[in-house]
Design goal:
With 405 residues, the chain is of the alpha+beta class. It contains eleven helices and 20 strands. Strand 15 and strand 16 form a beta hairpin. The protein starts with a strand and ends in an 8-residue tail after the last helix. InterPro entries: FAD-dep_OxRdtase, FAD/NAD-bd_sf. This is Glycine/D-amino acid oxidase.
């Protein structure tokens, strides 16, 4: 299935990683990673840095699945507000998830500082807008609980919001801990880096049809009947991982995004903040290095790619109109538009680790709007599992985490 359609900005702006290298024989590796997007790339990075031999497999061209359509906003906020999440999972898990996301932003920053790779990583603030009176009530609850647990947070009333962000709104939450990046560029640069430094092997256009246990680990069967033997297999291909799970754990969503033509730098909104709102489906906005404006949202339950794609033109108009409601004086001319399919979970948290304790079939499923920060957490946890190091984060992000519902 096509994970996105239209014209994603990131593929247009970057050099294409035009690698065609299908597996044409039986193969053996210590760790097989299925998926070459930002999740697979971060996992490969952590394993290579730890001296663990691994190989990437993808049925597509490198990083052209969901990563190519990601708007790559890095926030500690999770799709499920903390004030709601504590009623879905135990409070300790909810709070730990938020702090892990906060820490992961700096971890990602350090990955690209250490490797000296360009991922267009930029630190920016976040502004969470109240869409209506109910939104104000939510923000008030969020402010109190985040403040109580020690998360960085500021509350802006209408006057402060106008002064800080030049938005005529009711109220907002603000923090200075967020970032934005180019997920496609990040993935391809990380993979190229480890191809050169660690002789990372990458097999493209190689679809894994089946995973079965073997005496020494697993055997992966490709669509052309080649076998990959490995000690561990890491499944990092998003919602397409469903074929390797015993049961469904995610919900599929169609999401939409538009990118403007470049605007005068003086017309970019203050602080280049990441902006999102309390309404459902929510609107989110970010800027780019070359002063384009990206607006996304209008999520719907996914039914099929045809219906998703058919709605694109209508969704473009809605996103343009919603942007104008927030910034009527900024001239937004849509130059690119795209839609994609993403996954979410009932609690808004990812699934990381083995389905059953002790298994060496591991999952790195960074579902939800915070997928990239979750992917960074997953990369560290899975590295520790392979190194036989205890990682308490499995209690928060594992398949067997407790639920209040």
């Amino acid at each position: 299935m096509d994970l996105h359609s239209g014209l994603p900005f990131w593929i247009v702006k970057n050099e294409f990683f035009d690698l065609y290298h299908p597996l044409q024989e039986n193969y053996k590796t210590d760790v097989a990673i299925i998926g070459s997007g930002i999740t697979g790339a971060l996992v490969a990075h952590e394993l290579c840095e730890a001296g663990i031999s691994c190989t990437i497999f993808d049925k597509r061209t490198i990083a052209t699945g969901s990563s190519a359509a990601s708007t790559a906003q890095l926030q500690y906020e999770i799709d499920t507000p903390l004030s709601k999440l504590i009623h879905i999972v135990p409070e300790k898990i909810a709070v730990d998830a938020y702090f892990n996301c906060l820490e992961a932003i700096t971890t990602i920053e350090n990955v690209f500082k250490k490797t000296k790779l360009d991922a267009d990583f930029t630190r920016v603030p976040t502004v969470f807008l109240a869409s209506n009176k109910q939104g104000v009530e939510l923000l008030e609850k969020e402010y109190e609980i985040r403040k109580d647990v020690g998360l960085p947070i500021n509350f802006l009333d209408a006057k402060q919001l106008k002064e800080y962000q030049n938005i005529d709104g009711i109220a907002a939450l603000q923090n200075d801990t967020s970032a934005q990046m180019d997920a496609y560029k990040a993935a391809i640069n990380l993979l190229k880096y480890h191809q050169s430094k660690n002789q990372l092997k990458i097999y493209t256009h190689t679809k894994i049809e089946k995973i079965q246990e073997s005496k020494n680990g697993y055997e992966l069967l490709t669509e052309h009947n080649h076998t990959v033997s490995c000690k561990y297999v890491i499944i990092a291909n998003g919602f397409e991982a469903g074929q390797f799970l015993p049961k469904k754990v995610m919900n599929l969503l169609s999401t939409y995004a538009i990118a403007s033509a470049p605007v005068d730098k003086n017309m970019v909104w203050p602080h280049q903040s990441l902006i999102w709102e309390t309404a459902e489906p929510y609107l989110y906005m970010r800027t780019t290095k070359d002063n384009r404006l990206i607006v996304g949202g209008e999520d719907e339950d996914f039914q099929d790619p045809v219906k998703r794609d058919h709605l694109l033109r209508e969704k473009v108009k809605i996103l343009e109109r919603k942007f104008k409601n927030i910034y009527p004086n900024i001239d937004f001319v849509t130059e690119m538009a795209w839609c994609g399919t993403f996954s979410s979970t009932n609690d808004g948290l990812p699934y990381i680790g083995p389905w059953k304790k002790g298994e060496k079939k591991l999952f790195a499923l960074g579902y939800g709007g915070n997928g990239i920060t979750f992917s960074m957490v997953a990369a560290e946890i899975l590295k520790n599992i392979i190194l036989d190091k205890k990682d308490n984060r499995l209690e928060t992000f594992g398949f067997d985490r407790p639920s209040k519902k």
